[in-house]
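Module 6 notes. Inverse folding takes a fixed backbone as the condition and produces residue identities as the prediction. Think of it as a translation problem where the source language is geometry and the target language is the twenty amino acids. Below is one complete input and output pair. Work through it position by position during the lab.
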């Protein structure tokens, strides 16, 4: 049986993720919640410290315990546009790591998006976007690119962050293939055991996540990249304007 502070922390985390406690809201004072729940102040304090360690709240003298604002999800198209404007695909308060790349066999959904046959070779690039302050996963992002570009652009096969912007920036700049249009999709689904590693969650987690995809098409009508972003549980997509 888990300790009482863990049960309380889990209950409060569920309230935060459901929106009952919104970003910027203060949690009850320790003494007030202890009285309400008939728990010791030490138990409540330990629960609050666990929430802070998990990146869900911040605590400070004079301000109490406040729900953190989550860094929102970005679409592939938004990252591309941000890269053009700022030289980086990151939002403020965001970083990326776990960069991986290589040539693999195209899954059926990827093959359909790229207009190739399932099982054909394709470049797969992936990375994890994190909250720079809490290290929590914001999203796991995968870029699927036709293998035809591998010989001309060997940097796409290097498992590291690209120095010249996003992979689309590299492809369009070095091949002269300007982007003509983008087709974006978004939907929600429940996590599966396959999400455990990329999103750093327990395998038995059953929580809603947002999936964002984008097909990037050049002026000849060729899909030069298919991007898939899976947000961490509780993450929201927010459109940037201006």
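Target side of the pair, the amino acids:
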């Amino acid at each position: 049986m888990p300790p009482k502070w863990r049960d309380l922390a889990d209950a409060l985390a569920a309230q935060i993720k459901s929106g009952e406690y919104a970003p910027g809201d203060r949690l009850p004072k320790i003494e007030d919640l202890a009285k309400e729940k008939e728990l010791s102040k030490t138990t409540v304090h330990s629960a609050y410290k666990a929430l802070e360690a998990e990146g869900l709240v911040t605590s400070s003298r004079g301000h109490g315990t406040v729900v953190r604002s989550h860094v929102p999800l970005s679409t592939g198209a938004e990252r591309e546009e941000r890269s053009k404007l700022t030289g980086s695909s990151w939002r403020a308060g965001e970083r990326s790591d776990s960069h991986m790349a290589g040539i693999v066999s195209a899954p059926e959904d990827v093959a359909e998006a790229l207009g190739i046959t399932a099982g054909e070779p394709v470049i797969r690039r992936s990375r994890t976007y994190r909250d720079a302050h809490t290290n929590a996963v914001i999203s796991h992002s995968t870029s699927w690119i036709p293998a035809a570009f591998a010989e001309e652009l060997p940097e796409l096969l290097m498992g590291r962050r690209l120095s010249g912007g996003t992979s689309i920036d590299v492809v369009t700049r070095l091949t002269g293939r300007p982007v003509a249009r983008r087709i974006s999709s978004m939907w929600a689904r429940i996590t599966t055991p396959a999400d455990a590693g990329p999103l750093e969650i327990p395998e038995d987690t059953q929580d809603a996540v947002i999936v964002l995809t984008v097909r990037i098409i050049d002026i000849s009508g060729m899909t030069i990249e298919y991007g898939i972003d899976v947000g961490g549980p509780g993450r929201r997509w927010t459109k940037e304007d201006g």
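Reference fact for the lab report: The chain has a mean pLDDT of 88.
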